[in-house]
Structure formats: structure tokens, C-alpha cells
Design goal:
The chain is 23% helix and 30% strand. The chain has 377 residues and is of the alpha+beta class. It folds into 3 domains: 116 residues, Beta Barrel (OB fold (Dihydrolipoamide Acetyltransferase, E2P)), CATH 2.40.50; 36 residues, no CATH class; 204 residues, DNA ligase/mRNA capping enzyme (D-amino Acid Aminotransferase, Chain A, domain 1, 2-Layer Sandwich), CATH 3.30.470.30. Strands 14, 15, 16, 17, 18 and 19 form a 6-stranded mixed β-sheet that branches. Strands 3-2-1-4-10 form a 5-stranded antiparallel β-sheet, with no helix packed on it. The protein is globular and about 65 Å long.
């Protein structure tokens, strides 16, 4: 579960050009606008990331004009641009916690998401659950935050195979230390596509179709099963396992579905398309490296996400978050005005190296221009 609100330290403050009443605070690798003079470097604060939906509460009422979302009945925190500065997230003093808890929290890194009753902005998951039920009454109930809070977490934990890792990479702003710690690690860079994450697997001779959060157990009209049928993915995976001999017994491929009806079909595809970005060895509990990925994909008639850089050290992408953002803007903002979502960086060997990154060494750099341009991204 993503920690949307945590106790952190302000590590830097810098002025914003032509703005006298606000300044830019750096927390972890994030930068966010704060009232000038309200905080100082070294202050312990509560930092809420973008994609947070804050509850209706007097403590957050000042956000109503800019952040209130009737659809989610809460205050949605998103990327904003003021002049040349991007603001991602929001900062509160620790006394905000007094409105929600009698306990005192000061330890850096403490997750206070649940205490502050913060939900994640996740329209894809909400739509998945509602469509699965095909129930108008449920759609009505989903308008109320208490129903979403009680229902969604249970459904998410119940509906996902525990032996499969999920596909959501961590943002570089949350782990800025790895840029120097692993600056010489060889990685490859792929374009991040704005669609629906999908996983297809064969385990113990059974075929699995999964979205980002839910196992779609039975065949029914949805993009995930439509892709599975169109590309004959079950047959392709079974043939791949047969050809591999004793090397693989259970495999999963993970990728992105894009096209009509998905995220506004920004790429203009006339029909649904599937782009593979990872292959997971279920028995070894690890992702295959880039060379093995390319070898296995050569036996499948499926597209892969676009590889932009191959076998380069992380330092080429950037040694600071600011450098990474410059790289993503350079590679993702095209001359014809199209703005790509961002980049995903993965280790060449597929190894995890550190627990913070999950089953493989991978992280994403989201293009701030994309987030500003596409309000609901």
C-alpha cells in the first residue's frame, strides 16, 4: 500500500521567481510550494504526495477552491505549475494530526495516511471494481467515501494472486538516494505508457488474467480478456513454456493496454494494443534480465514498450532528481507537441538490490508537463 502521507524533514527552501509570498520546499526528492516564512530547513512536517485525496475536514477546508473533487468528495492533491516551478504535494505542520489522533508522531518516515483518512486517487481501480459488479446501486454507493474506504481495500487484497508482484514502480522522488548509491549500476530505459496495467500468467497449468489490482477469474467482456483472446496469449505462453524445457514451469508477462476507451486514448490507436514490459519467473520469485527478456519475447508475437536507452549507468540519466526531470522532459516532450507520461528505469539483470524497490530494481520518472497537461493523469 502506497504511503501517501508521511512525516518528513524539509531539506531545502528556495525562492520562486516573481513570487514574494511563497517559496519552494524540498522534501525527499519532491518539491512543493509553501507559504514563505512558515517553515525553515530542518523542520519536521507532514508531507502528502500527489494522488492523495484528503477528507472533508475543517483542517483542509482552505483547499476547497483549488482542490475539491465532487467525484471523490475530497480534496485531490495534484501537480501544479507556477511560473517555472512545479509543485507536487502539500506540506502541513505536525499539529494537523491533533485533529485526528491523541497520539504524538515525530519519527521521520512514519506513515500517517490512515490517521489522516487519506485515500489514493485511483480511478482505474474504482472503475474495475464497479464494472466487475455491473451494479448501478454499487456505482451509487461508490460516491460515498466511507463505502470506498471499507470496500476497496478488502477487494484488492482478496482479488490478487499473492504470488504475483504488482506493476506499480516507485517514483524517483521517494528514493532519491539511489541515484548516487547505484550511479554505476547498468540499466535500460523504456517509455512509460499511459494505459491499463495487465498481467497474464501460467501457474500450475492454470491461465491467469489480471488487471493492476484484480484477478479476472472468469472470461467476460473487458479489455484484459479482449487482449488475451485477440493475441491468443494463453496459447503463446504455453508454447513458450514447452519450448523452454525445464528452464521455466510458471511464467507471467506484464504490460500496458492502450487504445480506445482507455485514458483518453492519447496515442490514437484504432484498436486495443498490448505492450509487454516485464517477464516474471514465478518459481524463482524474480524478474528475468533484459537479455533474457528479449530472448523470450522473440518467441512471442507481442509488442514491447519502446526501449530508449540500453545498458547505461544510472548516472547518465541523472545524479539528482532535478537532472532526472530534465532527462524525462527531453525524451518525452516531442517537437510536435505530444507529451509522453514518463520513463521507467530497470536494472539490466532484473535483480532487486534493495527492498524499497520490490522484486526488481526499477523506478519511474513521471513527466511533470504530462501531469499538468492531463489533469486526470
Amino acid at each position: 500500500m502506497r504511503n501517501l502521507a508521511t512525516i518528513q524533514t524539509i531539506i531545502a527552501l528556495e525562492p520562486i521567481q516573481n513570487r514574494d509570498r511563497i517559496e519552494l520546499a524540498t522534501i525527499l526528492g519532491w518539491k512543493t510550494i509553501v507559504e514563505k516564512g512558515k517553515f525553515k530547513v530542518g523542520d519536521t512536517v507532514i508531507y502528502c504526495e500527489i494522488d492523495s485525496i484528503l477528507p472533508i475536514h475543517p483542517a483542509f477546508e482552505f483547499l476547497r477552491q483549488q482542490c475539491y473533487s465532487p467525484k471523490y468528495n475530497g480534496f485531490r492533491i495534484r501537480t501544479m505549475k507556477m511560473g517555472n516551478a512545479y509543485s507536487q504535494g502539500i506540506v502541513f505542520s505536525l499539529d494537523v494530526l491533533n485533529h485526528f489522533s491523541k497520539k504524538t508522531f515525530t519519527k521521520i518516515g512514519t506513515d500517517v495516511t490512515d490517521i489522516l483518512q487519506i485515500r489514493k486517487y485511483d480511478p482505474e481501480f474504482t472503475i474495475e471494481v464497479v464494472k466487475q459488479k455491473r451494479n448501478r446501486f454499487l456505482q451509487f454507493l461508490f460516491k460515498f467515501s466511507i463505502i470506498r474506504k471499507l470496500f476497496l481495500p478488502k477487494k484488492e487484497s482478496k482479488g490478487w494472486p499473492i504470488w504475483l508482484p504488482k506493476t506499480d514502480e516507485i517514483r524517483i522522488q521517494n528514493v532519491p538516494n539511489i541515484l548516487n548509491e547505484f550511479k554505476d549500476l547498468k540499466v535500460f530505459v523504456t517509455m512509460k505508457m499511459d494505459g491499463q496495467s495487465a498481467t497474464y500468467a501460467i501457474k500450475d497449468d492454470k491461465f491467469y488474467v489480471c488487471s493492476r489490482n484484480i484477478h479476472h477469474k472468469t472470461q467476460h467482456p473487458c479489455s484484459y480478456w479482449n487482449i488475451a483472446i485477440r493475441y491468443n496469449i494463453e496459447k503463446q505462453l504455453r508454447l513458450l513454456l514447452t519450448r523452454s524445457g525445464i528452464m521455466y514451469k510458471n511464467l507471467a508477462i506484464q504490460g500496458e493496454i492502450c487504445g480506445p476507451g482507455i485514458q483518453g486514448n492519447k496515442y490514437g490507436f484504432p484498436e486495443l494494443k498490448f505492450f509487454v514490459f516485464s517477464i516474471y519467473d514465478i518459481d524463482k520469485h524474480e524478474y528475468v534480465g533484459k537479455e533474457e527478456f528479449d530472448r523470450l519475447m522473440s518467441h512471442l508475437t507481442l509488442d514491447t514498450v519502446q526501449t530508449l536507452e540500453y545498458n547505461i549507468p544510472i548516472s547518465v540519466i541523472g545524479t539528482t532528481v532535478d537532472e532526472c526531470i530534465n532527462t524525462v522532459k527531453k525524451l518525452c516532450n516531442t517537437s510536435n507537441g505530444f507529451t509522453n507520461e514518463g520513463l521507467v528505469i530497470r536494472s539490466m539483470d532484473g535483480k532487486p538490490y534493495i527492498d524499497e524497490l520490490g522484486k526488481q530494481f526499477s523506478f519511474k520518472i513521471i513527466n511533470p508537463d504530462f501531469l499538468v497537461k492531463h489533469y486526470d493523469a
